[in-house]
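Request: Not sure, any thoughts?
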Amino acid sequence: MDKKLNIINTDFNGLYIIEPNKFIDERGAFSRVYCEIEMKDIFCKNIKQINHSVTKNKGTVRGLHFQYEPNSEIKMVKCIRGSIYDVVVDIRKNSPTFLKHFTVELTEKNQKMIHIPKGFAHGFQTLEDDVELLYLHSNIYTPDKEGALNIKDPQLDIKWPFPVTYLSNRDKNHPFLNHKFEGIELHEM
């Protein structure tokens, strides 16, 4: 079978960058976003929810969000219009990369997608106006199981590419981490 997706390992267990193999001709371009067979080793769950976000202004930050067990989720994020600086933070209890972050630029041109395993907080900053993202989730969003990290937490030391032009009131008010935060314990990976 001809593979249509290039799955790239990172230094974080379970975190992958996925690059499509694009087919281009005089009509335009075609690329695969998801294939159960090709992704069976990294995405062993059913897709339970697909979300679409539109962010109007360059410099906007959304995040850093996650869900507690039993609603933790695998998430795949793809930028379908514009470009973003995507950030994930490992919050898995006892992980060798605990509280370290990983960044990648996702754009409509590079068509990369990030595969985020359970136990990571996720956020992004828009690099231009009018950005659209698609999110594929392995679990249903559950508001009372949501958690978040503060994007300005000095312990995380995230360097955003631009000054933050917009951040929701909810995201502004997430507390900074303290010595009691040991991460989240996952029931299964």
About this structure: The two ends are 28 Å apart (CA to CA). The mean pLDDT is 92. The first strand starts at residue 5 and ends at 9.
